[in-house]
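Sequence design from tokenized structure. All designs in this work follow the same two-part layout: the structure record, then the generated sequence. An example of the structure record is given first.
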């Protein structure tokens, strides 16, 4: 399979999908399983710091086929676990260090893209979290106050009043927004494919259509034969449950996206996003949008979970789960009623049982892994890969002090508990959002239930 169904893959140069096939090696120093950002960044930094090592990346489909080539393109200077760390006095300093490392990671990605001449449409226009209801003004301003109390400044997060916020993004209702400059919009597939091309040019063995069927310390089995490797690093995030013995290691949750046709200047006069700011709002069924470099709106929302951790490699465009995402976009921008949504797709992302990313490496077995970014992995995968590479090199570094290192999660529950838990979580999130939209005040009961399930 080469196409992941996304607008991003559709907009790549026609000859970009698929690298020239390479013969299967029998022995390498490092074998990386999975050719998304996590695996590609691992190979990138290994080839930077240890050019003498023979590195292979094994990708079942094509590089960027997974979440990395089909996401919302928010390259965020934060990660999912920062908020929880900042909320406790005992972990606040750690949360701030992680946040600063993530902010620097956005610039690191820009640096590499620039240095390697990967034209991934990187534009650091920041992020707007829009209050679409008056009560969300208080909610977001409280959050802003908290962020300033714990050590961020106006240069990190600031309030835009309603006129300024509306001028930035013309959503149907907009009562102000929390703005951070620490976020860039990118074309996700261009970053993934661009990295793959550069790695191949550097001599990394970039093996597409090479599916790992099992692995143990020192040995990887694939559909193309066996490979011996001193170190084996897994970077399969939301696809992890398809690997032998890893069914309950990571929960695959789906995110769904749509993209409009290119929109004319008159529509952009109304919508704004002049600096390609990324935008969302505080609802629990997360939404995210960006203006693409070719003037489309690419917009997504969190989808669901399938019984038994089923991994659907491609979501068909007529999947009913995509209808609510399309509707949310039209509700935000009624002007879109006259314009087509040309693309609809989705895909799995990975959640660890403790809802935090994790990076681990055991020097004795040579086995390592990174992932579980809870839908916020575009930038986080770069930091995770750098951490893993430092662990592999046995090199002490500041980022090894970050909380993801060896923060192992237990397995997810057996079915049907897993499915029921995911369903209750989704239902509570939807009910809380619907109630708040209807009544214009916080939905305390549903919010309480929702929060019980995300810890
Ligand atoms: C629709 C969507 C929107 C998102 N939006 C954003 C966003 O805007 N911002 C953000 O920060 N995050 C976002 N995310 C999350 C982010 O994209 C992911 O966290 C990140 O891309 C994960 O990268 P990865 O390399 O770890 O995994 P992936 O990119 O999923 O790569 C895993 C790779 O492993 C391969 N693989 C699987 N099994 C095998 C096997 N047995 N053998 C060999 N290869 C195998 C797969 O084919 C796949 O290419 C989104 C995710 C989705 C699905």
């Amino acid at each position: 399979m080469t196409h992941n169904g996304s607008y991003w893959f559709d907009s790549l140069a026609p000859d970009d999908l698929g690298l020239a096939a390479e013969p299967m090696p029998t022995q390498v120093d490092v074998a990386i399983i999975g050719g998304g950002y996590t695996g590609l960044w691992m190979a990138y930094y290994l080839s930077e710091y240890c050019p003498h090592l023979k590195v292979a990346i094994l990708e079942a489909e094509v590089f960027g086929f997974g979440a990395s080539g089909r996401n919302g393109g928010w390259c965020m200077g934060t990660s999912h676990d920062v908020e929880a760390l900042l909320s406790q006095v005992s972990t606040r300093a750690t949360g701030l260090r992680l946040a600063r490392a993530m902010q620097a990671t956005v610039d690191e990605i820009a640096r590499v893209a620039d240095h390697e001449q990967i034209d991934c449409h990187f534009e650091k226009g920041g992020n707007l979290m829009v209050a679409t209801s008056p009560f969300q003004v208080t909610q977001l301003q409280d959050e802003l106050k908290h962020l300033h109390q714990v050590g961020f400044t106006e240069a990190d997060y600031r309030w835009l009043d309603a006129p300024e916020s509306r001028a930035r993004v013309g959503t149907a209702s907009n009562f102000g927004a929390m703005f951070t400059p620490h976020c860039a919009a990118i074309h996700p597939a261009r970053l993934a494919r661009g990295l793959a091309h550069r790695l191949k040019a550097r001599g990394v063995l970039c093996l597409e259509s090479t599916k790992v069927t099992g692995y143990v310390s020192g040995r990887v089995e694939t559909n193309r034969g066996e490979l011996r490797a001193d170190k084996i690093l897994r970077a399969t995030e939301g696809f992890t449950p398809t690997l032998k013995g890893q069914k309950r290691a990571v929960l695959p949750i789906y995110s769904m996206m749509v993209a409009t046709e290119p929109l004319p200047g008159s529509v952009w006069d109304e919508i704004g996003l002049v600096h390609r700011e990324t935008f969302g709002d505080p609802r629990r069924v997360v939404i995210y949008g960006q203006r693409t470099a070719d003037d489309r709106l690419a917009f997504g929302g969190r989808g669901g979970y399938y019984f038994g951790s089923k991994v659907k490699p491609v979501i068909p465009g007529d999947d009913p789960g995509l209808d609510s995402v399309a509707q949310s976009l039209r509700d935000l921008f009624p002007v879109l009623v006259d314009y087509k949504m040309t693309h609809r797709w989705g895909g799995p992302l990975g959640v660890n049982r403790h809802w935090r990313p994790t990076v681990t490496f055991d020097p004795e077995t040579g086995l390592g892994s990174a992932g579980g970014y809870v839908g916020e992995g575009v930038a986080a995968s770069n930091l995770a890969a750098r951490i893993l590479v430092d662990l592999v090199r046995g090199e002490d570094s500041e980022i090894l002090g970050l909380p993801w290192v060896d923060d192992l999660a237990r397995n997810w529950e057996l079915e049907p508990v897993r499915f029921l838990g995911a369903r209750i979580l989704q239902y509570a999130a939807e009910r809380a959002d619907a109630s708040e939209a209807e009544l214009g005040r916080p939905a305390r009961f549903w919010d309480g239930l929702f929060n019980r399930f995300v810890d």
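The radius of gyration is 21 Å. We note this feature because it recurs in several other targets discussed in the main text.
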